[in-house]
Amino acid sequence: MSKLQASEYQKVHKLHPPVPLLLPRKATKDVEIAGFTVPKGAQVFVNVWAIGRDESTWDNPHTFIPERFLRSNVDFKGQNFELIPFGAGRRICPGFPLAIRMLYLMLGSLINSFDWKLEDENMDMEEKFGITIMKAQPLRAVPVAI
Ligand code: HEM
């Protein structure tokens, strides 16, 4: 999905999907994965973007369907590797207890206080790839007094 009509977007009243990224790690011992040997000490990147778009785990992985999580037992706190927005294990994001409280508070306040519309009629969902993934074109959302 590269372009989404503003009208379609407003109809479904959804917010931007989570930002995917690559998590750097070092192999602590020699491991064999899919016929390849990853030697001890090698730098590896956990591709959280690909994990989040794995068709064997998620239906329509490229479509933004936040309701999918309402009927799912998959948690985001690092125990279920299908979904690790805050990482997992010893280097899990130490800010996540704060982040999950602030996100609900900030988003809830913004949605409760305003209606929102897009500055541009078309929403460009093109991505710019890096260690983190950003939108290629910044999202310009305009608050409208309720
Ligand atoms: C929605 C908000 C946030 C997301 C999605 C997020 C996500 C992440 C991710 C994926 C990592 C890497 C974890 C890993 O390597 O396994 C990380 C690390 C980290 N985060 Fe966050 N984070 C968020 C908010 C915060 C906040 C609010 C703070 C601090 C107040 C914070 C502080 C840190 C620190 C210090 C690390 C490095 C931990 C380490 O390398 O041991 N984060 N975060």
UniProtKB/TrEMBL annotation:
It comes from the Eukaryota. Keywords: Heme, Iron, Metal-binding, Monooxygenase, Oxidoreductase. Heme binds at C93. Its cofactor is heme. One of its GO terms (molecular function) is oxidoreductase activity, acting on paired donors, with incorporation or reduction of molecular oxygen. Pfam families: p450 (PF00067). Gene3D superfamilies: Cytochrome P450. The keyword Glycoprotein does not apply. InterPro entries: Cyt_P450, Cyt_P450_CS, Cyt_P450_E_grp-I, Cyt_P450_sf. PANTHER family: CYTOCHROME P450 FAMILY PROTEIN, EXPRESSED (PTHR47950:SF48), CYTOCHROME P450, FAMILY 76, SUBFAMILY C, POLYPEPTIDE 5-RELATED (PTHR47950). Belongs to the cytochrome P450 family. This is Cytochrome P450. It comes from Citrus unshiu (Satsuma mandarin).
